[in-house]
């Protein structure tokens, strides 16, 4: 409806021609012209806002994961998958050994097509993923080519929806990967960071997911009706 209201005045002005337009502007004066332009701008903004998908009208925020796991398990207890969701974006330890006061990276076993799975705890619409690489120079290049998958399947990355494939620079300390399919974010409870190929190792400092929580739908409650029939009703 707003689009029709918006296009109506534009079409009318076009039909009036240049002479009629000049006469109209002279009739309206400066104040009237400003009011007309303001009205057209307002209608355009409202129309564009209505065209945006509902999940893009909400603000994008950090979605904290409640747990993390590697395919094939952790390298060891100090560098487990949970280190990738502990809030520390720069690991100070150079290795998975006991260092007092150190912050650690997460590290998987070397294998084919390893993945790191984050459980967001509920369905979310993922828009982008911030990944902080292991900062030690020895191992930054291990990240390289990687994929982002999102969905409801907790046992396999590739049974979900792939929203990103890319290659990080060999010395990259962090990357921001968009998670967009068909112009919108991808919905799911589980997010996977997957490294395709043989003999790959996931070793990262932190993975942060940004998006929106899917609003819970409230099921309608059944309306209760009297189970007895009044004699006065005659039925």
TrEMBL record:
Give me the segments passing through the membrane. Answer: 27-49
UniProt keyword list: Membrane, Transmembrane, Transmembrane helix
The domain of life is Eukaryota
**What is this protein identified as?**
F5/8 type C domain-containing protein
The organism of origin for this protein: Cymbomonas tetramitiformis
